[in-house]
Amino acid sequence: MSSATVPLLEDDTLAFGDEDLDTSTKKGVLTHPYVTFFHLAFRGCALFFYLFCRVFTDSFISSFIMIVLLLSMDFWTVKNITGRLMVGLRWWNYVDDEGKSHWIFESRKGQLQSRINDRESTIFWTALILTPFMWCILFLIAFLSLNLKCSLC
After folding, report:
1. CA 137, CA 140: separation in Å to the nearest integer?
2. pLDDT by residue (tens digit) across 6-35?
3. Which of 11, 41, 120, 151 could tie 86 with a disulfide, CB 3.0–4.6 Å?
4. Is the pLDDT score of 36 beyond 70?
């Protein structure tokens, strides 16, 4: 049985996309301003801390842990909150009675797709694409300058 045909668990409480959203907001106004802020904040803080970690601490371990924690918070936020509210994506995993792992991927479709704010969607995808690109550039700079310790962060 493929993951697309696996029945959902019976304890699902809210059908995906059935959240009460105010669709009467003006065009160009963020529907979820706090969600958008945290989507950018965790990514931005991790990059900022990487660039200026020597100002805060001389400890490589402390810098590494702080960056990993910020990126972990970013991952959790994107997976559980911003992906769902800003662009209508969600995914999860469950294990059936036979012990097989099933991944479920969902996105809003049809009329529910129109609930997505275009500005938030642009912010979400731009940040999602540009941040790894910036990390690759920072890695190459650290690697080519033979600063191997910083290339690990």
Report:
1. 5
2. 554 444 444 545 554 454 455 668 888 898
3. 120
4. yes
